[in-house]
Amino acid sequence: MMRSFILFAVGLVFGMGLYLSGMTQPSKVQGFLDISGHWDPSLAFVMAGAIAVGFLAFSVVKRRSRTFLGDELRLPPIGKVDKPLVVGSFIFGVGWGLSGVCPGPAIFNVGLFDLTAVIFAVSMAAGMAMDRLIRNMLAANPATEPATTPPVVADA
Fold first, then answer.
1. For the chain, which residues make up each domain, given as ranges?
2. pLDDT at 4
3. By the 8 A CB rule, do 40 and 28 touch?
């Protein structure tokens, strides 16, 4: 029960931060991304604050093996930049720029019964499901999976 309350409280604080910063307003986000038009730099301060908080949080987390709630802590490897990361980042950036919405604010706006956010969230879920389906199909048939590392040749 206490765990559920803590998770709810953290989600509530995060959602309110998104709302108060204007990140839930697509027009505000698009104004920030429109550097050649009527640029709105206010979200740069939000991002700087998020980077500062993230830096402090990761400096504490990287020395731990468990979360504060006792779960195993699994962080991604540092410095691994591969094709899926670059392609995924590109798709995310284009989608963010066109829609003015990223996943956190979209979920917040779904809670406000915003039809556009519902369409965005359903589309996002469909994209995630397609990714999982394609990965499962490739894993089931390794002959079609693109090689990510060169083949190892045994010495004769």
1. 2-143
2. 92
3. yes
